[in-house]
């Protein structure tokens, strides 16, 4: 039976893709006006203020146990502090937007390889072959970009630490996550990210910000577009069962981010690099695309109670 779906659902995946991909460019653009941890602290502080206002207005339920609080805080630290922190550090070290986006696109492959092992399940050839294709594609992009600008070993280290952060955060959420109201989970997660960033900001940075309209626009876009709207769309699509469409669109994040970076930041991707991106996207597809055998095999109807 065909079910009616809300109109916004038709445009949500594409809007999410555009906001998510543009976020890489907005972040690198804003880093010309502020140091990375200072920039992140401003971003997270603004998001926490917005979520706190929504919390006061909506009064959603809080986590029931101390472990639920801890799990939300750990995921928030891994994703907000480690993932975003290392992304920003890689940008300040000179890594191109498209290269970083491509490295981070390997996250669903790593989650697919590691998560089954937590449940003592075997990992098939799709996962390993996809990872190989993804790494090979990333290598092609890095070598091709070296003809224009050689990425430093430090920038690549930051990128892979960011990949570790988003992968570990996703695995922690899969293993220990409990359904919470999105305002509650975002408030705790971003607060944990803010707390994780502040010590590094205080110890390592001057905390000076060149307040210009360009920086304010970048910050506003990251707070409203990336942290509030994009994450809100993602959660909404998951609630209505559209997460598979989002996963499919993630194949397009690296090339779209690279295209926007070329238009806005004048970061050129050689032709060979686009072939590497296509190879990596194919690897992600191979590793994450699963045939649902249940749809081909008639299932017994549940008995009525």
How does this model look, in words?
The structure is a single chain. The chain is an all-alpha fold and 305 residues long. It has one domain. It is built from twelve helices and no strands. Helix 2 packs antiparallel against helix 8, helix 3 packs antiparallel against helix 7 and helix 4 runs antiparallel to helix 11. The radius of gyration is 20 Å and the shape is globular. The relative contact order is 0.21.
Briefly characterize the structure.
With 305 residues, this protein is mostly helical.
**Form type:** globular
- Decide which structural class fits the backbone: mainly alpha
Largest sheet: none
* Helicity level: over 70%
- Could you name the ranges where pLDDT drops below 50 across 5 or more consecutive residues? 292-305
What's the order of the H and E elements?
HHHHHHHHHHHH
What is the strand and helix layout of this fold?
Elements: H1 8-30, H2 36-58, H3 66-92, H4 97-104, H5 107-118, H6 125-146, H7 153-176, H8 182-204, H9 213-239, H10 243-249, H11 253-265, H12 271-288
Q: What features would you highlight for this structure?
A:
305 residues, mainly alpha, 0% strand, globular
């Amino acid at each position: 039976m065909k079910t009616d779906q809300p109109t916004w659902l038709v445009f949500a995946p594409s809007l999410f893709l555009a906001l998510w991909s543009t976020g890489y460019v907005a972040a690198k653009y804003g880093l010309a006006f502020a140091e990375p941890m200072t920039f992140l602290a401003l971003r997270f502080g603004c998001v926490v203020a917005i979520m706190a206002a929504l919390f006061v207005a909506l009064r959603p339920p809080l986590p029931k146990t101390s472990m639920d609080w801890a799990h939300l805080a750990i995921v928030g630290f891994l994703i907000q502090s480690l993932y975003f922190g290392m992304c920003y550090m890689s940008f300040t070290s000179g890594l191109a937007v498209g290269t970083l986006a491509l490295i981070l696109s390997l996250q669903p492959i790593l989650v697919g390889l590691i998560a089954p092992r937590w449940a003592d399940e075997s990992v098939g050839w799709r996962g390993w072959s996809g990872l190989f294709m993804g790494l090979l594609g990333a290598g092609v992009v890095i070598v091709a970009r070296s003809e224009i600008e050689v990425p430093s070993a430090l920038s690549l280290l930051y990128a892979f630490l960011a990949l570790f952060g988003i992968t570990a955060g996703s695995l922690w959420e899969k293993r220990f996550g409990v359904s919470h109201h999105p305002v509650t989970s975002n408030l705790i997660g971003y607060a944990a990210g803010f707390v994780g960033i502040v010590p590094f900001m205080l110890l390592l940075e001057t905390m000076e910000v060149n307040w210009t309209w360009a920086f304010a626009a970048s910050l506003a876009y990251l707070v409203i577009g990336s942290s509030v709207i994009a994450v809100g769309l993602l959660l909404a699509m998951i609630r209505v069962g559209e997460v598979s469409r989002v996963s499919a669109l993630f194949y397009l994040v690296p090339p779209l981010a690279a295209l926007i970076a070329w238009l806005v930041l004048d970061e050129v991707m050689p032709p060979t690099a686009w072939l590497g991106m296509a190879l990596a996207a194919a690897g992600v597809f191979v590793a994450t695309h699963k045939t649902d055998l249940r749809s081909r095999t008639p299932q017994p109807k549940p008995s009525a109670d």
